[in-house]
Amino acid sequence: MPDFLDPAVCTYTRALQQAGYAMGHFGKWHLGDGPGAPEPFAYGIDECRVNNGNGPQLEFNGRNIRPELRCRSSEFIVDHTIRFMERNREKPFLADVWLNDTHASLNPNEEQLAAYEHLRPWDVDDRYWGAPAVYYSVVTEADRQIGRLLAALARLGVSEDTLVIFSSDNGPEDIIVQNASHSGVGSPGPFRGRKRSLYEGGVRVPFILRWPAGGTPQGVVNDVTPLCAVDLFPTFCSLAGAPLPDGWALDGEDMTDVFQGAQRDRHTPILWEWRFEVAGHPINMSPMLAIRKGRWKLMLNPDRSRVELYDIPADVMELNNVADKNPDVVEALAREVTQWQQTLPDGPVFPVAGSNHYPWPQRSAGL
Q1: Cβ neighbours of residue 122 under 8 Å, at least 6 residues apart?
Q2: Region 184-213: what's the mean pLDDT?
Q3: 75 in a domain, yes or no?
Q4: Looking at 96-100, 211-215, 242-246, which range is the least confident one?
């Protein structure tokens, strides 16, 4: 990865800022920190409080912060977001609220843990709560703070007009990873894969949308449209009346109609590359490359040492590899994803990338 995101890259934050929106970012940054890394203001952000980044810091950030502050990370992030909304209630605003919960390490306090006393393991030290209690208590705290945020929108009188999106960046962490060894019990549901894996359990994440005034229907589940984070940029620009930046080819597509209830396939493929190792059980260790186009998802290593094709609507668990039965589909998708890979920046590739060999050679430190 580069040391930080190039400030010259077009971002939806800058596009909407130029269209008159107040732009706020509160929570994890993780787009570069340390000497030389720009603060979020360089990317079209008006106000921010961050961790994992340079700029105004959150109260729980730092190596020597007291544990009683770390367990309140979601509370602090939401506090700053609410104050930002209060200051900008009379104009359009967009707030990125990037919670640290439930990213490891998780350190809830005794009060947060109390609701899960029934999950404490038997016959152990009273200080040991066990991974389910730790994880569930942090999920509950994040949910409580999201409720405060939604209540603030209602109190400010902008709840109906405000588009609210709840999503995540990847599937659950594996308990084999060092900083999640006391809490990594998040579930991918029925899907194969976890964080770092290109199977559905690693890349399929929650996406919950609320926008009453915009026509988003209530209580509807769209299991037809594959939507990706790269779609947010063109969709936000469309909704805000902001022109797309000249000279940039965006990977995503405008999903305004989907936000308003349409259920359709996407017009553009979704592509992935993972150059590193995948933690945990071999069944979750995916090939390096993946492409989703229509009903098909092809996964392969560039050297074709592994080739897997899944009909996702019919096989969401990715257990029935039909590559041998559909050679034309494999060749067309393989050509598309490998040509895309050749456009990516150079960088390290781990020797075990794309392997599901068991047992593995020596693992990387910390993973």
Answers
A1: none
A2: 96
A3: yes
A4: 242-246
Q: What pLDDT score was predicted for residue 64?
A: 66
Using alpha carbons, select from 354, 317, 321 the residue that is nearest to residue 192.
317
Spatial neighbors of 63 by CB under 8 A, at least 6 apart, are none
Write the burial class of residue 268 (CB in 10 Å: 0-12 exposed, 13-18 middle, 19+ buried): middle
Alpha-carbon gap, residue 112 to 127, rounded angstroms: 14
Q: Given pLDDT bands bounded at 50, 70 and 90, which one contains residue 67?
A: confident
Chain segment 221-263, per-residue pLDDT in tens = 999 999 999 999 999 999 999 998 888 888 899 999 999 999 9
Q: Assess contact for 337 and 298: CB atoms under 8 A.
A: yes
Q: List the strands of the sheet with 296-300, edge to edge.
A: 270-273, 289-293, 296-300, 307-311
**Residue 38 belongs to what domain range?**
12-259
- Number of structural domains (the chain) is 1
pLDDT at 307 over 70: yes
Helix pair angle (73-87, 131-155), 10° resolution: 10
Find the mean pLDDT for residues 46-51.
Answer: 96
- Please, which pLDDT band fits residue 34 given cuts at 50, 70 and 90? confident
Report the CATH number at residue 180: 3.40.720.10
Burial state string for 128-144 with b = 16 or more CB within 10 A and e = fewer than 16: ebbbebbbbbbebbbee
pLDDT number for residue 364: 54
Is 363 a domain residue? no
Q: Residue 315 domain-assigned?
A: no
pLDDT (0 to 100) of residue 55: 95
Distance from C-alpha of 222 to C-alpha of 261, rounded to nearest angstrom = 8
Residue 177 in any domain: the answer is yes
The label of the residue with tokens 């961790």 reads: 51
Structure tokens at 61: 């950030």
Strand order from edge to edge, sheet including 22-28: 47-51, 22-28, 93-98
